[in-house]
Amino acid sequence: MTTLDRLAAEKYVLLTTFRKDGRAVPTPVWAVRDGDALGVWTVSDSGKVKRIRRDSRVTVAPCDVRGRPHGGEVPGHATIYDLAGTRRVRDLLKQKYRMLGRLSLLGSRLRRGERGTVGLRITLDE
Predict the structure, then answer these.
(1) For residue 79, how far is the Cα from the chain centroid?
(2) Which pTM does this prediction carry?
(3) CB atoms inside a 10 Å sphere around CB 79
(4) What UniProt keywords apply to this chain's record, in alphabetical order (predicted)?
(5) For the chain, what is the domain count?
């Protein structure tokens, strides 16, 4: 089993982005396998999206819902999906997280609209 497979099988992963001064900002997120990368879903105007636009370096580690890691972190790079890629990540999340995923995605769409969230593509540096 590859590192990508292990991370994609986790319920939560700790996505760490970096501020201008280099400080790490870890956030637990849902993640799914999307081809040769991890797909993550988040609010479009979140801090992590702003940090990724400036610096694509990230680390990813398996964690619990509170963000406590239970495995080593893996370096990678993140990019922001276009609308089609974001839709694909949403569909993958619905498959993996079943009813909870569907309800979360529906609630988010009702609150923020379709463009209120965005998918992130995380390619591991292996």
Answers:
(1) 10
(2) 0.88
(3) 15
(4) Oxidoreductase
(5) 1
Amino acid at the residue 66: R
Q: Provide the residue type at 73 as one letter.
A: E
Q: What is the CATH number of the domain that holds 70?
A: 2.30.110.10
Provide the token pair at 60.
């990813």
The domain of 10 spans 3-124
Q: Count Cβ atoms within 10 A of the Cβ of residue 30 and give its class: 0-12 exposed, 13-18 middle, 19 or more buried.
A: buried
pLDDT confidence of residue 117: 85
